[in-house]
Amino acid sequence: MDPVGPVPPGAPGPGAVPIDIGADPARELAREELAWRAYQEAAPDPVTAALQWLARRLDELLRAASAVSPGGGWGLLVLVVVLVVVVVLVRRRFGRVARAAAAPGAVLGDTERTAAEHRRLADRHAAAGAYDDAVRERMRAIVRALEERTILEPRQGRTAGDAAREGGRVLPTAAGELREAARRFDETVYGGRPADADTDARLRAVDAAVAATRAVEPA
What pTM does this model have? Predict the structure, then answer.
């Protein structure tokens, strides 16, 4: 005997998917998806603007379709499917992984490499023409070197700007170089500005200047 009991007449069988979706549930589903914060928090770039425009048009189409066909139907179902596809694409672009890569964050992250290891990685990336990666590793080398010299206390979550401000107080003659390195790092890693050979060379010079600067006890 079926433990769930007999299926009432006219009810869909097990595993059946209803294709006649009501106007109100469809509209509510669309509103819930459109209210997802990626539409509100995403960076105002052309791709985001286009996706937001498409989302607004889909919402308008859902409203119009529900007014013409109050009982729902295939038109609403197709629009809901299209909306779900758009939401998936947006989440792939602005989801957890994308936000982790785009939002300003810690310079070192979870890495435990030494300053020398970061420098070797930076040299390797620069030799291969991967200047964005070279800039990232060079800034990590600068911050790790400051920690190894006990100028900075090891701390997770320290940003490039934090390292420049804290390091500049102990190395005042190199404070300007540290600020420049932090700015170039943020522009390249988080600002979407591609690095080039000049950017790599400038961070190399900052790394050398900071390494050669003697610490001064803060007043």
Answer: 0.53
